[in-house]
């Protein structure tokens, strides 16, 4: 495998943006009611637990990647051999492609429900995928550039939650630990879709300059997103009563309905439009990862892999017609993501550890 | 290669830009107030108010239609209007009293489901019919602005507790709280707030009279900027302007049958005193008289709420946050006979610019 030229690499601190922008996506628009379903208003504890689990997984990922000194594609080939390793790699590519489809379709759903009911799925999907092709063709550095802006530009949105304080009743979070540990852990599992995204590191790790230094930035990224999630969770729980929250599919967006500004009547429109920038890196980075895997496995140019994948994604997005199917896809993504983060990663971690031990002895 | 990218970007802009139906402000009717009245079991009457802006003045145009469901009413109204009706800046929804007594949730459902409608929207119950109230002409800026300003300034500066669509739904869906709405009435060329309509679930069961609204507000909300006149024993009176009020709940005893104490704190300034002399002794006298009055009136009010089995103050919620494994059912079985004690503390901070 040829080494990646220095000029395609990114500075270690940019990993912060690559990780956090990938995590914040469509999940954060409506995870609150899903986690509150099992753990009630103790679910903010689950958010913290999910964050801690994320840190542990990230630590394992770094350990795996440092041992292989390459991406997960090489790790799989080293451990399982060419054939099985490549099958695994293609499954991984499928996973990242599914991520693109899930994010894009859910966002289109939001736009349809909140802004333009008569919007054609095909049009927005095609436009988005064209933009994705454009950005990904610019190379990995361009993708990370989009990640950077997707954190910086929408960061003002966090201020809008100040409007909800007027109606917040933080007492309702008490008493703490009124639910069983099992309920709280179940909510932690339900958090997966929201916390998901940092596993793209598996693919772009070789593109980081002095990769070892990026570790602290990646951890800082997970820490910050967890913190943001906890804040949003607590505000949401204080703002809605429990049964009211269960009615709101996108609780974060519903909270924007209370925002009142002299120059804009419905703030959600601004928020949802801004969210385009938030989900753009999700799509771009995932598409980049998927096409990169295909390139490495099948040995074709990334450009062609990307275009084929984009066409597949566009078609797939258009085929998902109803809310039920969107939910099903997201549930499946969360499910697969859960076993990926907390099953596959530790499994590889342990396996690689044993292999290295054995080799050292031999 | 470069050309390629420009082409991609250009096509993105073109495709994304041209595919949505536009609504131009001059070509739509902006709905500001809608009122609902009960007709019979299967139909409700909807009255929509649309301001028509002309030079110099604003005319109030009303559309009336009957239908079975509230979303249908929006559709039916379109039949009467030459321009499409936009619901995005709906400011107020009125319910006729009869309808409120039958339950408002079936009609509120469209409001919470519709993404275009904000949750800062005011709701109110009309003594009489909403249709009749909306047919009137109030103020110079159109009925919509008149009505929403009426509620807004009474929340901010007078004795209506904070209320809007969000607050109503919060209380409706909460197990430990019942909703309430302002209760208004038409009076010639004015609209008057006559009390607070109390709900059990989504049905109006009772209302609080205007004179008790002050005590109701200090129990459910923070009260600022209102003036209250105290009748003293010696035929004197004092007017006190409130700066801020606060209330704290204390619970003791079992979770099924707690003893509740409510501490009310009132801080204000003296606005008017009918006697010439004002000193520390009189200040204390005013304070204690007012304290006694608050305790007496709020206790009476709470007894009243207990006897109707409704809890707009949210004692259930407060109890839930203080006890583990709390059961609303057990709490509300005992609710009418709970012992709720009020302590009031009034502080007069200053007496204006003279002594």
TrEMBL record, chain A:
Transmembrane among keywords: yes
Keyword Zinc-finger belongs to the record: no
A GO biological-process term: spore germination
Localization per record: Membrane
Bilayer topology: Multi-pass membrane protein
GO cellular component: membrane
Record field: transmembrane: 12-31, 43-62, 83-107, 119-137, 144-165, 191-208, 220-240, 269-291, 303-322, 334-355
Keyword vocabulary terms for this entry: Germination, Membrane, Transmembrane, Transmembrane helix, Transport
Family membership noted in the UniProt record: Belongs to the amino acid-polyamine-organocation (APC) superfamily. Spore germination protein (SGP) (TC 2.A.3.9) family.
Protein name as annotated: Spore germination protein (Amino acid permease)
Organism (species): Paranoxybacillus vitaminiphilus
Automatic annotation (TrEMBL), chain B:
Subcellular location, record wording: Membrane
Keywords noted in UniProt: Germination, Lipoprotein, Membrane, Palmitate, Signal
Spore germination protein N-terminal domain ranges (all copies): 23-185
GO biological process, one term: spore germination
InterPro entries hit by this protein: GerAC_N, Spore_GerAC-like, Spore_GerAC-like_C, Spore_GerAC_C_sf
GO cellular component: membrane
Gene3D superfamilies associated with the record: Nutrient germinant receptor protein C, domain 3
Subcellular location, principal: membrane
Domain Spore germination GerAC-like C-terminal: 195-352
Membrane-related topology note: Lipid-anchor
Domain of life: Bacteria
PANTHER family membership: SPORE GERMINATION PROTEIN B3
Family (UniProt): Belongs to the GerABKC lipoprotein family.
Name the record gives this protein: Spore germination protein
